[in-house]
């Protein structure tokens, strides 16, 4: 016959194991994403901590988790981190130089020709580009989205589309 103390211990052990399993699940998913072993899930690449597949690209949700709004220095940190992550031509220094030339590192920069944000993305193409790179419904003036999309574009095709590239 099971005593009350034994039942309590078993219940406690089961609750502890369940807590550990639920805590470890996001960590295991993140580890699989970094090795490319996972098939993906849902969410928004711009926020959170799990993984997502966007047009068959697996990304941790918060690559380069840097608070870019705090200062131009933090925005440069974000640019450098993204440029290292996606290995762009010319490296992080070139990525910062292009952003400085395009917008003076101002996420609110706007050119009357229809270009906006840190990397002066063409406003009319921004929605499809943002969606392609996992930032659907983000404004072109969102510094994080603009940097991530632009750096990934530069990784794929170089700095040619930018006047300062």
Describe the model.
There is one protein chain. This protein is mostly helical and 165 residues long. 50% of the residues lie in helices and 8% in strands. It has five helices and five strands; from the N terminus they run H-E-E-H-H-E-E-E-H-H. The protein has a three-stranded antiparallel β-sheet with strand order 3-4-5, with no helix packed on it. Strand 3 and strand 4 (115-116) form a beta hairpin. Helix 2 packs across helix 3 and helix 2 packs parallel to helix 5 (143-157). Residues 34-56 have low confidence and may be disordered.
Describe the strand arrangement of the main beta sheet, using strand numbers: 3-4-5
State the low-pLDDT regions, or none. 34-56
Q: Count of helical segments?
A: 5
Quantity of strands, as a count: 5
Overview in brief:
With 165 residues, the chain is mainly alpha-helical.
Task: Name its key features.
three-stranded antiparallel β-sheet, mainly alpha, 8% strand, 165 residues
Chain-wise SSE layout:
Blueprint: H1 4-35, E1 51-54, E2 57-60, H2 72-86, H3 91-103, E3 110-111, E4 115-116, E5 121-122, H4 126-132, H5 143-157
Antiparallel strand pairs: 1-2, 3-4, 4-5
Helix pairs in contact: 2-3, 2-5
